Amino acid sequence: MALEPRVLFDDLEIGEIAIELDDKEPQEVIRWGLETFGDQVALMTSFQIDGMVILDMAYRLRRDVRVITLDTGRLPEETYAFIEQVRRTYPGIRLSVCFPDFREVEALVGKYGVNLFYEDVTKRLLCCHVRKVRPIVRALEGLQAWFTGLRRDQWASRAAIRKVELDHDHGGIVKINPLADWSKEEVWDYIHAHGVPYHPLYDRGYTSIGCAPCTRPVAPGEEDRAGRWWWESNAPKECGIHCPIETGGFEHEVAAILGEVAKAPYRG
Ligand code: SF4
Fold first, then answer.
1. Which fold does the domain 11-263 belong to in CATH?
2. 127 in ligand 1 pocket by Cβ < 6 Å?
3. Residues assigned a catalytic role
4. Does residue 74 line the site of ligand 1, with CB under 6 A?
5. Closest approach atom of ligand 1 to CA 239
6. What are the extents of the domains in the chain?
7. Is the Cα dihedral 255, 214, 154, 133 positive or negative?
8. Which class for 175: exposed (0-12), middle (13-18), buried (19 or more C-beta within 10 A)?
9. Which of 10, 26, 117, 223 has a beta carbon 3.0–4.6 Å from 124's, enabling a disulfide?
């Protein structure tokens, strides 16, 4: 049996690799990731168009590519159907679905209700932290690298991403963003040219797809991420997975929720 490659990089090394890969096509960046990290790299995707392009490209290089998705418990029904469609279209992929810790969700909704996110930004960030950020941290444990579908033109907070970077928010593993310099048009061109399946909500006016209660279609001329948490103003269109969000308020609430979980007897 082949030994798993175990490669660790420091900031300087990954900076040099990032410069080398910056003008390379996404397929070359993905090949580098697969060859460098073997089974220790996975695509993390919510099956939006960017993730689907990476999945399709990776599948052409490695049929048993690892794919991880997150079921927050609040996804649109269409996403579940689409996950099954992806599984049928790409037989052999190793798809795992990760979930939030049910005790943390119970503590969250017990304290603030099921639709707390509409009340204020702090509660929305708290929900994203419990249902998204913490499960993703767990899912990435043990990996050396992950592929994401981030693009620089998606939102101001993503404008400076590199194709390869050290992810200090997730233990210093390598974060690979093969589509960093692609435009939305290039992504759609690839989808159509290669017959890649895409999430059905795109045909109903959605341009960014997340949890059902927090995502709606956008109006013509609106930014692509305008349909996410559309009721908020002056808040980042981010959930905290890809950039740490610090408000002071929600961290306090997170500590309270986790404190309750720690005190409660385990009923598993
Ligand atoms: S997107 Fe909405 S429902 Fe999903 S985790 Fe964030 S606040 Fe909760």
1. Rossmann fold (3.40.50)
2. yes
3. 239
4. yes
5. 6
6. 11-263
7. positive
8. buried
9. 117
C-alpha of residue 147 to centroid of ligand 1, in Å? 22
Provide the token pair at 240: 């905290």
Residues shown for the chain: 268
Atom of ligand 1 nearest to the CA of 116: 7
Distance 209 CA to ligand 1 centre (A): 11
pLDDT in tens, the chain (268 residues): 343 444 578 999 999 999 999 999 999 999 999 999 999 999 999 999 999 999 999 999 999 999 999 999 999 999 999 999 999 999 999 999 999 999 999 999 999 999 999 999 999 999 999 999 999 999 999 899 999 999 998 777 777 899 999 998 898 999 999 999 999 999 999 999 999 999 999 999 999 999 999 999 999 888 888 899 999 987 777 777 877 666 666 677 778 878 878 777 666 5
Buried b (16+ CB within 10 A) or exposed e, 201-210: bbeeebbbbb
